[in-house]
Hints:
The chain is α/β, with parallel strands linked by helices. The strands form 5 sheets. Strands 3-5-4-6-7-8 form a 6-stranded mixed sheet, sandwiched between helices. α1 (2-19) runs antiparallel to α4 and α11 (286-292) packs across α12 (295-310). It is globular, with a radius of gyration of 25 Å. Pfam families: GGDEF, Response_reg. Residues 118-234, 446-567 form the Response regulatory domain. Residues 274-403 form the GGDEF domain.
Amino acid sequence: MLKYQILFKLQLQEKLQKMLEPHAQIPEQELYRLAHSIKGTAGTIELPEWYSEALRLLMTFKEDGQRVFDHEQMVIILEPLYELIQQSNLEPEVSETPPIHKIPFTITSPVNTAKARTVLIIDDDIGLLTLLKDELVNQNFTVLATTEPEEGLALFYDKRPDCVVLDLVLPGMNGFELLAQIQDLCERHFIPVMIISASGNKETRMHGYAMGAEDFMVKPFDLDEFSLHIRRLTSKRIKLTELLLLDSVTGAYSMPFLERELERYQEQSRVHATEVSLIVIDLQGLRNYNKTYNFAKGDQLLRQVSDTIKSSLRVEDIWAHERAGRFYLLQPGSSSAQSSAFIDRILYSPKVASLIPAGMMRIRYGVVPVFATTDRSQLFDQVNQQLLHLHASLEQGTSVTSIPLQTSSRMNASINAEPAIPEPVVSESTSSPALAPKVSANEPLRLAIIDDDPLIRNILERQMFDLEQEYLLDIRVYTDGKEFLNDPWHDESAQYVLILDRMMPRINGMEVLSRLRGEANSNYTVLMLTGVDDEQGITEAIRAGADDYMTKPFSMMELEARVRRLLGKVGAAL
């Protein structure tokens, strides 16, 4: 629990410092919310003295109180909390770096992501958020976690999680307001919502259930009980969705139906040797479209694109929607080359191109053959890997071509019992009202190692070169952040994964991360390396937008596993 207690105290000290600014005027309702938050988190992370102090404060202030407190009054009010911080051996101090309050991060569990159940957690307390995230990852869940309600809303529409865990006290928007925005989609997709709150009175619980919440847990709560509730909620949703044939947003088939049909055609191919192809189609840029307009407009666009493509399919084709802009097409009786030519004609037709907003969105696809003995989860991994290798190079006035990738030796080895496999095909589509479709081209994913320790750099570089057997990578090594930022290679139109040390001379890892997150594009996925006792550094890295972190010394096997997950994330989170 030590890590979560430190995160809790760091975040709380930052809040107290803001409240004690000389000219601050703090409303009573804000103090009530602070005490409410402390009570819920402190009990869960085993800080009984903080829990007791929160109870005392809750008796002092009212949720709807109208008093306002100045600096001198706040010093007296907050003195017991500061004494608790000073009594700690940790004595955390907040960095002079201006705090960044947007703290989204995504952690996937080590199981197959096609099968892992996804949980979205939205809570403004980073200590409790991290605790719940780590607990569920250990239970083999894929976890999306954020302190920001707007980011949580975007993640909900992008990922369509199997469960939402929602705190009621959030910055800028309370949990009930957020629940009202997702309620309709939760009902249509059978997505359960669990409310977590330090307020467990009957009125609050009844209001939550009336708004559609499936479950309600009062802080503090037992982690084992929390995990059990999540398993129950997600299992219930999986069983319900398996009974459905159609996706309610797009009208395409559901993924469980596609998987059952895939299994059926694999069985048939054992007897009749029928060729079957699986195509993944990705509508890139949907998240920005949703932010520019709204999620209802995004769903409408998805339905229009789905209907247009579906109208051009054969009777035997299986068209399914997974999430956000990701679709799959199963084509029995077609080779990879035939399916590639078939989907080319559809995606680059005027009907589809007219639906895609120029300059904002584009369509990519990948194709793999299906064989009787191919593991289905591995098959989805293979076809999604095709999207990782694709980078568009747009040249005005040229026509579309499909460029095959070389099949890796590892992929051949995994299916060496099959006939010769056609090379997987990937392509990309963009639309512009006045232009013909464009050329697509392949470009490696860029991986940068940035560390001032020559021994660590050498070890990391050798370890990452091993991944080139599976991924198309361009790997570069830098001694510090300044060298990386001065290289024009880092700021081109490409996708980057960074292994970034936090403590370096000249420009350190935190400065690099802050600069990258401040840019308009978001094509950097960052794994931050910190010292084993640097809990404050971990907190700052998460707050600044690091996608994952590791503490030194670390296991090379674990590092490679983390990097693999981030490479997968680059392909999925577009």
